[in-house]
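Q: what sequence does this backbone want?
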């Protein structure tokens, strides 16, 4: 028995139980629930570690090596995340396509996937903008650029 989830519209939005008829169907290649549990475990791990990494590296006192290391970690997590079969299926979905899972996947688990995908993007943007700002301004202090630039 398959749990039917239809995903359509924007590539990262997932809607459960839509009434629109699908154009085609995809099937996730997680042949057993243990494979899905492993993937979901990786998603939850990234999701739980991400806020702490950004907080520690883009905090009030920053420096280039700390920001570079955090950016590298985000890239590693993004690669891991994008290599999951669920990510490959959801990110290549076309409008009106339907996904069928070979095992029970809860809406909360799909929401966690979507949040993690978005948070990886946000973390990358925060860190890159922190690297770009090569001065101390307002409440943020660059240890390697202690002066405020006068424009």
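A:
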């Amino acid at each position: 028995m398959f749990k039917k989830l239809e995903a359509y519209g924007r590539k990262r939005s997932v809607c459960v139980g839509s009434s629109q008829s699908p154009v085609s169907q995809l099937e996730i290649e997680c042949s057993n629930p243990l494979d899905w549990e492993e993937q979901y475990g990786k998603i939850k791990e990234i999701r739980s570690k991400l806020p702490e990494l950004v907080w520690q590296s883009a905090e009030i006192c920053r420096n280039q090596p700390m920001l570079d290391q955090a950016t590298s970690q985000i890239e590693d997590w993004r690669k891991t995340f994008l290599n999951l079969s669920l990510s490959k299926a959801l990110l290549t979905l076309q409008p009106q396509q339907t996904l069928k899972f070979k095992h029970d996947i809860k809406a909360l688990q799909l929401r966690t996937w979507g949040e993690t995908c978005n948070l990886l993007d946000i973390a990358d943007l925060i860190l890159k903008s922190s690297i770009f700002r090569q001065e101390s301004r307002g409440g943020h202090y660059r240890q390697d650029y202690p002066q405020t630039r006068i424009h």
